[in-house]
Structure formats: C-alpha cells, structure tokens
Specification:
- By secondary structure, this protein is of the alpha/beta class.
- It folds into four domains: 4-283, HUPs (Rossmann fold, 3-Layer(aba) Sandwich); 285-362, no CATH class; 376-431; 439-521, Arc Repressor Mutant, subunit A, CATH 1.10.10.
- The protein has helices at 4-8, 14-23, 50-69, 96-100, 120-134, 144-149, 154-162, 164-173, 177-180, 234-245, 260-269, 301-307, 310-318, 331-345, 351-356, 358-362, 376-386, 392-401, 411-428, 439-453, 461-474, 480-491, 500-507, 509-521; strands at residues 36-42, 74-80, 140-143, 186-188, 203-205, 210-214, 220-224, 230-232, 249-253, 276-280, 283-284, 325-326.
- The strands form four sheets. It has a five-stranded parallel beta sheet.
- A hairpin with a 4-residue loop joins strand 5 (203-205) and strand 6.
C-alpha cells in the first residue's frame, strides 16, 4: 500500500510540485536557521481584497504539502509594507479630504479615515489579520514600520549603504532615462513634513551610514539610514527583506514577474540566497479587468463570506492558479457545489487521488465529511419558488426530501440554506425575467402537469427526471436542452436551472403542479 509521503513525492497536484522544488533547496543540508520560511507580502494601501487571501491560502497549501514530504519545521510570515507612502487616496474609503491632506506620508502615519485605529495602515493591517484569523491560518504578522523603527533592518540597511552602487546599477538598468536621473533606492522620510521623499541622493556615506539629499524645496538634509528615518524603494525592499529574514519561498501575482530578476539580484547583493518563487495569474472583475485594492472592483473577502462558506473560497483559490480567473458573483454557487462534490468523493479515493483532490489541500489532509444532501444550486431554486426569508423557510421542503436531515445534524446544509436565501434575494431575484410558453411548450407543460397529478412514484428524483425527459421527447423537442430551458424561463425566470426531477422531489409534487399552472396562466410573467 502506497504511503502518503511516497504518494506526495510523485503527486502532480501543484502544491506538491512546488513543495518538492522547495525541498531541493535543502537536499544537501537543512537550513541553518532551523526552519523553512514562507512569506507573503501585503501592501496595505487599501482595504484587503480577495487576492490577498488567495496568496496566503495558496502559500499555506504549499506549506502543508511541504510538511507532508519533509520533517524540516516551517514558519509563515505575513509582512505588511505599512511604511510605504500613500501615493493616492483609495476610492472606497470615507474621509477623502483627510487622506488627501496626508498624501505621501507612511501609511502608519496617515490618520485612520474610519476613526477606529491609530493610523490607516493599522486599520488595514487589522482588517487583514481579522480575516486571516477567521480562516484559522497559522502565521506570524510582521510590520515594516516596526522592523524599520526598532532597528531590525539596520544591518541590511547599512549593507545597502555599503553596496549602494551595486544596487543602483541593477535598478538603473530597469528604468527609463528620465527616471534614472531622480532615482534612489533609499526613500528618506522628511524630518519636518513626515512625507516619504522620492529624491536623488547627493551622497551615500557607507562609513557613517548616512544619506545626504535636497528636499523638494532645495534644502539639504543628512539623515541616518537606520532607525526608521527612511526606507527602501519597493523593489529593493523586496530583495532586502528576503536577505534580512532569509526567506525561502514567496509567491506573487503575474504583474510582479518581470521584477523577479531584480528582487533576486538585490537579495544576493545583500548577502542573501534568493527564495523559490511561484507566480500566479491575476483575478479579474466582471468586465475582465484586473482587481485593484484602490478601485475596490471585484469581490471583497467579506462579500464572498456573506453568501458562501470560507471553504468554497479556498476551493476557488486552489483551481488553476496559473490561469486568470473571473471573480464575480456568479462563480460562488459553482464553487460551493464543486467543493462538496469533492468532499463526497474523497473517502472512496486512493491515496494518489486524495492528494490530487482540492479538499486535501484546503483542509491540510484533515478532510471533513459533507452533509449537503441538497446542492447549493438547488437551494437557490428552492428559494426562488418558496418565498423563504431565511434558512428556516427552506427546511420544511428539505426535511420532506431528506427526512433524516436537520439543522443540527447538517450544519453545512443549514448554513448553505441561509446563504442561498440571501444570494437569491440579492442577485437572482432582481434579474429574473419570466415569459409565457410557446404553443409547443404549453402543450408539453400541460401534459407534464397531468402526469404529475397522477404520479404515484413518490419523490424519486431520477424517476421524475425520466418522466420530464419523456414528455420533452414526446412533444417533439429534438434538443431536450431547449425543453428544460423553457421550464426554467417560464417557471423560474432564468435560462439555467437544476435537474428538474430533483427540483420536483425537493419542492414537492403539489407545489410544482401549482407553480406550473401559474406559469401556464401567465401569472408569473405578469
């Protein structure tokens, strides 16, 4: 029988492929620091968005895969670049004038527009940590402001002074000629205005660990690079952080991929070993545009969790990370149902199949059972016709369909029922368009009504589905998809829907007959 570790060493699931690549880094000897360090970086310039979660979730999946193939301890740090200057005011936050008055100050020096925390950076960090804690991620939170101000980066900053010319040579190659004239890898913080300055250096003194520059008004200043009186530009900061912390693995979006050689080279200049990388494709909004923290387009973390479970979001993140994915409301029901399909499949799979199953990676190998005896898509359709205001309004139908089910015995189903009602009311109901049936459709529906009134086969979903098929065939629907589409459009006000036999079994024979008679009479379209 194949052991889990043996299977993991050959699994084609992408987290295991990345974990094996990382393990090769220490095939000759284990890390001197005693652990493998995973890092995720976070720029708190706006509210945390769903891509931020995806980065931590996917990194955690690789971390768990690594732990399955190696006994080397691991750590995960979430590093916030909260000393970055606020370059523009996010569109999706209050008190815009307050923020505009503090433009270019470090995010941890900008007042919190929500008036809940000491700074805007602290607010956004808290939002990130709250969400990561909700998901139960095991991580350590690092703040750039704390690291710079407490001297934890002093050694690497002094080394950056010493090797300034080497770092600048790398950076200048990547810049346009105009930008080269004003660029410096050091960003001093103005002693009087508190703003992060993007100015060229007049002198970098490695012996004293100081930089000399003119501010925007032409006044000359000399400041130490240590003690939080300045920071590094974001590209050199990437590489310096890797060197300072001895990072072994970091993933980031495709928009960073062209900068990878820069990050790596600066890490090496500063005495570090470049980490292993994984580049993922970006998330897109409904219009196919990149999701942006500052624009607030696409789904937020909280929005997804308003309509579906956290596990369904993790499932969405697992799928094809190197393929750009549209992240909009309509992906939620599919993610929920596919997640539970994988849960149901897991117990009967071989070890190899289990390691390829997304739920192994979502749950770190400790996979729960699914109690979803009714799919989420079916719950949405039930919400459509039942007029339910909450989960309790659906349970009468659910218990008739599955007598052994209950909110207590089926907590996942109970949660999903509440989500389905909310999702239906917010996204499905406003877009429904009912229509009258054509003559052919009317004749078929009247026939189906007659058959259901005389039905004595109980609530057998498959038998009912076969009967609906038979009606469609007998009434000349060459493409049965058109017959089912007619049922959905006339009865549910939408072009797609559930397996209709299962819908009848869930909603009930008498209730379905009454619904169809309303549709035939034109009451629904009216």
């Amino acid at each position: 029988m194949t052991s889990l570790r043996d299977a993991a060493m050959t699994s084609k699931a992408w987290p295991f492929e990345e974990a094996r690549r990382l393990l090769k880094r220490y095939e000759k000897k284990p890390p001197e620091k005693g652990y493998v360090l995973f890092e995720t970086g976070y720029g708190p310039s706006g509210l945390p968005h769903i891509g931020t979660f995806g980065e931590v979730a996917r990194t955690t999946m690789i971390r768990r895969a690594f732990e399955a193939i190696s006994d080397i301890p691991t750590r995960l740090i979430c590093f916030s670049d909260d000393m970055d200057g606020m370059r523009k005011v996010p569109e999706n936050v209050p008190n815009q004038d307050l923020l505009r008055a503090n433009i270019q100050k470090p995010l941890t020096a900008v007042p919190d527009p929500f008036e809940k925390f000491d700074s805007f950076g602290d607010h956004n960090n808290a939002m990130l940590r709250r969400f990561l804690d909700t998901f139960g991620f095991e991580y350590e939170f690092y703040s750039a402001t704390e690291f710079y101000k407490t001297g934890q980066f002093d050694k690497i900053l002094l080394l950056a002074c010493e090797r300034y010319d080497e770092i600048m040579a790398v950076m200048l190659k990547s810049l346009r000629e105009e930008r080269q004239q004003t660029y410096s890898c050091f960003l001093p913080i103005h002693p009087e205005t508190g703003r992060v300055l993007y100015v060229p250096m007049k002198e970098v003194n490695a012996k004293d660990g100081t930089i000399t520059f003119d501010d925007e008004d032409g006044k000359e200043w000399t400041l130490p690079v240590t003690g939080g009186q300045g920071k590094l530009q974001w590209k050199p900061d990437f590489g310096a952080r890797w060197a300072a912390l001895d990072v072994d693995f970091e993933m980031y979006g495709k928009d960073h991929s062209t900068n990878t050689p820069i990050y790596d080279k600066i890490c090496e200049i500063l005495g570090g070993k470049k980490p292993e990388h994984f580049t993922y494709e970006l998330f897109l909004d409904e219009n196919g545009e990149k999701i942006s923290k500052s624009k607030g387009n696409g789904l937020t973390i909280d929005e997804w969790l308003t309509y579906a479970s956290s596990e369904s979001l993790s499932y969405f993140m697992f799928q094809k990370p190197k393929t750009a994915k549209r992240l909009w409301w309509d992906v939620i029901p599919k993610a929920v149902d596919e997640y539970h399909q994988q849960l149901r499949a897991y117990p009967t799979q071989t070890v190899d199949q289990q390691l390829a199953n997304p739920v192994w990676h979502i749950h770190g190998g400790n996979v729960p059972a699914s109690d979803m005896v009714v799919p989420f898509s079916m719950l949405l359709n039930l919400a459509s016709v039942a007029g339910a205001k909450d989960a309790a309004g659906l349970w009468g139908f659910i218990k008739r369909y599955a007598p052994e089910a209950s909110p207590e015995a089926n907590p996942q189903l109970d949660q999903a029922a509440g989500f389905a009602v909310r999702y239906f009311n917010d996204f499905v109901a406003p877009k429904r368009v009912f229509r009258l049936p054509t003559d052919q459709e009317r004749a078929a529906m009247q026939d189906l009504v007659t058959r259901l009134k005389g039905w004595d086969g109980g609530l057998d979903a498959e038998a009912l589905q076969s009967e609906v098929f038979a009606v469609g065939k007998e009434h000349g629907f060459e493409n049965l998809r058109e017959w089912f589409q007619a049922l959905y459009e006339v009865l549910l006000g939408q072009s797609q829907g559930p397996r209709f036999g299962g819908f009848i079994a869930l909603y009930g024979l008498d209730e379905t007959v009454a619904l169809m008679e309303k549709g035939l009479a034109g009451d629904l379209a009216a």
